[in-house]
Design brief:
alpha+beta, two-stranded antiparallel sheet
Length: about 450
């Protein structure tokens, strides 16, 4: 009814805008002013007329409108939220990267490939940690190396029960005293061994938190012992933290001097250096010169790489899942708009026939329904983009993160909703434009 009312009011307005002007030929011949009709420029079907006709029927069925835009809202909302979540996660990863990976340099012996296996071309000096601590930008350093036990085991009891189920032994590591603080670890129970233990080859051990739990040791005041290959080692500490080297939480750690005496360890495998932010390239270059001044090529370093690479890879992985879900929801939303617009065309055949009979062109009829579907898609895109941004803010607040999303993401979501409406309304508008006035009025 509202559409027909606006249509007839516009027709009445156009007729009232019709004026008469004298015809120049008759004035010259008869001296009288013959009146001929002349239509003003305002009689044209302008853009605001098109928008008014297209939007007049949108709000007449609120329930249908809500169900129509629901798919678009879900699709746009999920896409905007996906990009926002990915950007927020990337920011959190970058922050973690700065606090851990970007403040760490790893030095290891270089390797060369032989016929059957690779072999180290150099070795780390036993005083490597002391040497690099003299460099600017170095805040801590520690050596480490794995000890192969072969068939030997690590247990908390001196006698093995052959009837008991076999369990994997914790890995055995030789470390220097400075390694635990260099990897942001703490010895929360007992103490860490020192250089004196290493020089005396004392059989002492510090357990990682998970290794201690596996061996059933939670206190060291009674000096509990563990047995490594049948040799008794006194447990003097339990360490946790170690965010930079999570593998140490599962390990049994002993001094390097003891590892050389009991297991014939020849050299350390890795030097971990904790550095100040931004000192990576400098420390990486200077550390090999400090450790092997004559043959720096026998050592290699792993300095911090750009955190953006890690952030982008994680962001891409997160995007894949949610973008697929958002695309499916958008497809459902587009089909919903197409169905409702097509239904609107079928319900308004009489109106379309009347408009065609009064002079409306095919293009004007088609444009009316295209604009109607675009407006519906635009509304869905606007609501979906707003909900997506709100969702990112709420989730980030609950997790204690800083929400990060680009303003253009919400704008792009809104425009995408309008584009979905445009594509969805093309076929119904084409159907409406092909309706003939006689057939429409006869069917109405």
């Amino acid at each position: 009814m509202s559409t027909k009312k606006s249509l007839f009011s516009r027709l009445f307005r156009r007729r009232s805008n019709t004026t008469t002007t004298p015809d120049a030929t008759e004035t010259a011949a008869t001296g009288t002013a013959a009146l001929v009709p002349s239509i003003r420029h305002a009689d044209r079907f302008l853009l605001h007329d098109l928008v008014a006709e297209a939007t007049a029927d949108i709000g007449s069925r609120p329930a249908r409108l809500v169900m129509t835009i629901l798919g678009t809202v879900l699709g746009i909302g999920s896409l905007v939220a996906t990009v926002g979540f990915a950007q927020t996660a990337a920011a959190q990863i970058a922050a973690q990267f700065d606090s851990y990976a970007s403040t760490q340099v790893i030095v290891t012996p270089a390797e060369a490939k032989g016929r059957n296996a690779s072999f180290a071309t150099g070795s780390l000096p036993w005083d490597s940690a002391d040497r690099v601590l003299r460099l600017a930008g170095v805040e801590g350093a520690g050596l480490s190396g794995k000890i192969a036990l072969g068939t030997e085991t690590i247990t908390a009891v001196p006698v093995n029960d052959p009837s008991a189920a076999e369990t994997a032994s914790p890995p055995l590591m030789a470390v220097s005293p400075g390694l635990i603080p260099a990897v942001d670890g703490t010895v929360n129970v007992g103490r860490m061994f020192d250089d004196g233990h290493s020089e005396r080859t004392d059989r002492v051990a510090v357990l990682g938190e998970r290794a201690a739990e596996k061996l059933g040791i939670n206190r060291v005041d009674s000096q509990p012992s563990i047995f490594i290959g049948g040799l008794a080692y006194a447990v003097i500490g339990i360490a946790d933290g170690m965010e930079r080297r999570g593998d140490l939480l599962d390990a049994v750690m002993i001094p390097f001097g003891t590892a050389r005496a009991d297991f014939g360890m020849g050299a350390a495998e890795e030097l971990t250096i904790r550095i100040a932010v931004g000192a990576g390239p400098q420390v990486a270059e200077q550390s090999v010169l400090a450790l092997a001044p004559d043959f720096p090529d026998t050592l290699k370093t792993r300095a911090p790489s750009a955190g953006s690479d890690l952030a982008q890879s994680v962001q891409a992985d997160v995007n894949i899942v949610f973008i697929v879900l958002g695309a499916i929801a958008l497809l459902a939303g587009g089909l919903g708009i197409a169905n409702v617009t097509l239904l609107s065309v079928m319900e308004r055949i009489g109106e379309i026939g009347l408009r065609r009979a009064l002079g409306a062109t095919r293009r004007q009829i088609g444009a009316q329904f295209v604009v109607e579907s675009v407006v519906i898609g635009l509304i869905g895109g606007l609501i979906g983009a707003a909900l997506g941004v709100i969702g990112v803010v709420i989730v980030a607040a609950l997790q204690g993160w800083t929400p990060v999303t680009h303003p253009l993401v919400a704008v792009a979501g809104t425009v995408l909703g309008a584009l979905v409406g445009l594509l969805s309304g093309w076929y119904p508008s084409w159907r409406a434009a092909r309706i003939e006035p006689v057939s429409a009025l006869r069917g109405a």
